[in-house]
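wait is this the right file?? whatever heres the structure
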């Protein structure tokens, strides 16, 4: 029992404190309370989130939607590259999700290699992207 407690304490000490500062979300990626890496656009109009290297999602924070009105596909420009997105409605918020694995890979690569990623007319910070992904994975692996 003591060994298990010691292991848990060591894991907790090795992981950055599980909290995020909403004031910093325009400047860097953070892990939210659901263990999902997120960042806001610099203009606060959009929120981007990722999950396990397979999804990239953008929430439109400025518009409302209904399921009947917003079920379609769109092309958004990501750092001058057209990317296919599905558009849907989640709890009244328009949501864009990258449709293809090539699109997701391109977006991930941009956040890994650039300082800023431009999606449409909005700029997103790439700072802390890899760290937030790693932190999210550690939290998921250590969850009981």
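ok assuming it is, sequence goes like this
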């Amino acid at each position: 029992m003591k060994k298990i407690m010691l292991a848990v304490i060591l894991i907790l000490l090795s992981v950055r404190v599980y909290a995020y500062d909403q004031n910093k979300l325009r400047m860097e990626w953070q892990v939210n309370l659901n263990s999902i890496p997120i960042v806001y656009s610099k203009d606060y109009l959009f929120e981007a989130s990722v999950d396990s290297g397979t999804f990239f999602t953008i929430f439109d924070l400025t518009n409302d939607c209904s399921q009947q009105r917003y079920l379609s596909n769109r092309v958004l420009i990501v750092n001058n590259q057209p990317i296919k997105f599905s558009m849907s409605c989640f709890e009244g918020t328009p949501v864009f999700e990258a449709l293809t694995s090539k699109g997701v890979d391109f977006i991930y690569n941009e956040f890994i290699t650039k300082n800023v990623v431009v999606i449409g007319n909005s700029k997103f910070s790439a700072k802390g992207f890899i760290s937030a992904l790693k932190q999210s994975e550690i939290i998921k692996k250590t969850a009981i």
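Strands lie at 30-31, 37-40, 46-51, 55-60, 72-78, 81-90, 93-98, 116-119, 122-125. so i think its the right one actually
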